[in-house]
Amino acid sequence: MASASIKRQRKRRRVDQDGDPEFQVAPMVDVLLVLLLFFMAITSTEVLKKNPNLVLPEAEHGSKPERKQTHVITINIGWDKPTTTAQFSMDGQGYPTADSLSAPLITRRTKDPQAYVLIRADQDVQYSNVADLMNACAAAGIGTVTFSVIHKVVAPGSAPGAGGAN
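^ that's the sequence the OP posted. Answer follows.
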């Protein structure tokens, strides 16, 4: 019996004599992979909302929205110069007219009553196309519509009333 208790004491002494814990690499890699997948999933949904072919209009007095980005329905309106027609898209899917967006907008509004529409229209799009889209939003029961623009930086001395050259 005495030899069994001596063996237990020896095992206890050998376990952690230097006091430094071992660094576990495998759990760290697991956590990093989960984070990588999370950010890839979020980025891919944001990329679907953006259209690199759009040239947004400039605005001197534009401001960032105060609403949460979780309730936004992004609609792109592109302009096809050869055919002079507007091209509507939402969630990566194209629609021939603004009226054809009414049913998908109603569906999105039903799922998220706080949803609002963010219109990203090319600077060449005619106003009538934007007005048709706003009417489709109203028909779907969405009363809040915002526009995406590029903030125009005014150089010092060129602002209206600053005495710049005419």
